[in-house]
Design a protein that fits this description.
With 250 residues, the protein is α/β, with parallel strands linked by helices. It is 31% helix and 24% strand. The strands form three sheets. Strands 1, 2, 3, 4, 5 and 8 form a six-stranded mixed β-sheet that branches. Helix 1 packs across helix 2.
Length: 250
């Protein structure tokens, strides 16, 4: 079975068909820059374009950088504020002709890593962090998702900005930080999270995870820290997985 997964990010919107048995992309990934401004109408047009690109009909999974409750968007950290209160599942289902499952993008990536990647078979408390335009977080307790944690917006002691404005991969690139300097910021954040939740495992994802050897060795947080196995494809795979589990009979 192949399901279309779409990952909406602050800089790009990516989609591909996913082989649900193998947990990997079954086609080449299509990537279209996120519109500016990233309003629901503009982003919805891109989603429809990706659906048309694959000539797809069927369950559609969409990962989105916000807290999502009952298919309704509740926050808008790295997208246009017009998304707040938007009935995304209902309206995108109507626009695309597909049964849409809308899920927090980090939760989507986490689902993929827990099912097919670095968290497979892991009990206890597990965090999956996606490092990109912001910091997405996905929390699991004995394999069960605790949705919409949004811990990239934690304020660390003594700081006037939330964590993602100091330690996201975008900040490393924009401020031209060395890998060691950026790792020190990320380490400070992970220590703070560790003191609150005491995780057994931390999985670091996003596109930067393919360069994990440049920063993970500099981290000192006292728990296991590993790179995501699905790298930047986790969001697409997880979005498709969410759609499959929401409609198992389709």
């Amino acid at each position: 079975m192949k399901i279309l997964g779409i990952d909406i990010g602050g800089s790009g919107i990516k989609g591909a068909l996913v082989d649900m048995k193998k947990g990997r992309l079954a086609t080449k990934r299509v990537r279209i820059p996120t519109p500016t401004p990233s309003t629901p109408q503009a982003v919805g047009d891109v989603v429809r374009q990706i659906v048309a690109e694959f000539d797809y009909s069927g369950p559609l999974g969409v990962g989105f950088p916000a807290a999502i409750i009952g298919g309704v968007v509740k926050t808008a950290a790295n997208v246009d504020d017009a998304w707040i209160g938007y009935e995304a599942e209902r309206k995108l289902s109507k626009a695309t002709g597909s049964a849409v499952t809308f899920i927090n993008d980090a939760d989507a990536a986490g689902l993929a890593e827990m099912r097919f990647g670095a968290g497979q078979g892991q009990d206890g408390v597990v965090f999956v962090f996606t490092l990109g335009t912001g910091i997405g977080s996905s929390l699991y307790s004995d394999g069960v998702l605790v949705p919409n944690t949004e811990l990239g917006h934690l304020f660390l002691p003594g700081q006037t900005q939330d964590a993602e404005h100091r330690a996201a991969e975008r900040v490393r690139s924009a401020e031209r930080l060395s890998w060691e300097a950026w790792a020190a910021r990320l380490d400070e954040y992970l220590h703070h999270v560790y003191g609150l939740f005491w995780p057994d495992l931390i999985i670091l994802g996003g596109g930067v995870s393919k360069k994990h050897e440049k920063f993970i060795p500099h981290l000192t947080v006292p728990t296991a820290v590993v790179p995501a196995r699905l790298r930047n494809e986790a969001g697409i795979v997880g979005a498709a997985l969410a759609a499959a589990e929401a409609r198992p009979g389709d």
